[in-house]
Amino acid sequence: MKGFLLKAHAKKASAKARERSAVSRAQLDGQSRQTTETKTSAFPTGKINQTERDRSVLTDSSFDPREPRKEETVSDDKPPEKMSFFSMPQPADADGTSAWLVGNKTAMAQVIDSPGYPSRTPKPPRCDMTVFRQTIDQQKWGIFATGLIKSGELLFAERPLLVAPRSVPKHFRALPCPQYDDGRVMPLVLETYERMLKLSLDRLPADRQKTFMELPNARTELAGYPILGTFFTNNFGIENLKDNTTYDGYAGVCEMGSRFRHSCRPNIMQRFNLASFSFQFYAARDVEANEELFYAFCGVEGSAASRKARLAPYGIACKCSSCLNATPESDLLRTNFQSEIERLTEQTTECWKTGNKIRPEVLGNMLKLEQDMIKEGLDGISEFTAFLMVIGLTLKSMGQSSVAETYLTRCKGVVGIIDGSASA
């Protein structure tokens, strides 16, 4: 049980190392085009990076331009070494293709060697689970539920338009610029990375390239780099796809999934399935017909002021009720709910280990926190689902089996999504 709680916090923890089988060069060379060996750095990432990253990359003083480099030019007809461009999946199927800028062939091995690869994208219970339309005030566009959607149900799955390293490479060893100072190196790095992403996008059909470029671009600090700006505005992190050449793994931009609007009261969650090379979007709680579907672009913990600061790079001023009606009490709840869940969980697990009875006041504190989180709109996050399981198991250990079953049933549909055991 405690292990499941740790999985629920996976967005804040490092992924376990996984063995990667070797893939023969012959499997990869048919698709690859060679590019430059890189080192990567922190950079403002997309919707998924709930831990804030260093936003001073354009004036990063830690970069040493005097580091020796190969005297090698970078051109469109001769991309640098070590990175590769792929179209995924191979072979292609009717569910669409993705452009993938790969930093290391071990990442490709993770996908090719995943059980079931290549699989088709999974289909939801109904083909019309969602609709993309204007909001009631006709000021925005959003994705809405067309009918009742139960917690854990698949909304849709789609292949991303573009997958690339989650952070801009810090520098390229092959860049012939040892005489440049930092202020000139970083624009050259960004220009090179922009070109690499362009070469990746060129592998897509023209209509998918057009769709990518029509997505919003809120990254004003990347003026002059339209692909980078669009990528960092709209991407979702791929937590289960990493290699040793990328700073913090990969991220992908979707045609429909990237159109979800932000709320600090989210009601959906997503995961990436390697076998089908697709993002899968699920209801994180029961969703009513005509209810808009929201994803949290930043961490939902912390005060309203801190969340406002995290959203500023996206040009977003959140209008959810938790931001508009924030109070010192709601700020305190959002600041402390994670540690409070951990504290209550430790109290109950200690009782289970020692055989002691759980005190009624502990259960009372659990039920109060549950209701407070629902009221604050935190019932659509993974920590809440894990907490429901803790409450259910606590009730069961206290002999309240029927009530316990209602809690365990409520979280059953989402558990497999959080820990990755749900079928693709």
UniProtKB/TrEMBL annotation:
Residues 29-49 have a biased composition (Polar residues). It comes from the Eukaryota. Residues 50-81 have a biased composition (Basic and acidic residues). Residues 1-84 are annotated as: Disordered. Residues 127-298 form the SET domain. PROSITE patterns: SET. This is SET domain-containing protein. The lineage of its organism: Eukaryota, Fungi, Dikarya, Basidiomycota, Agaricomycotina.
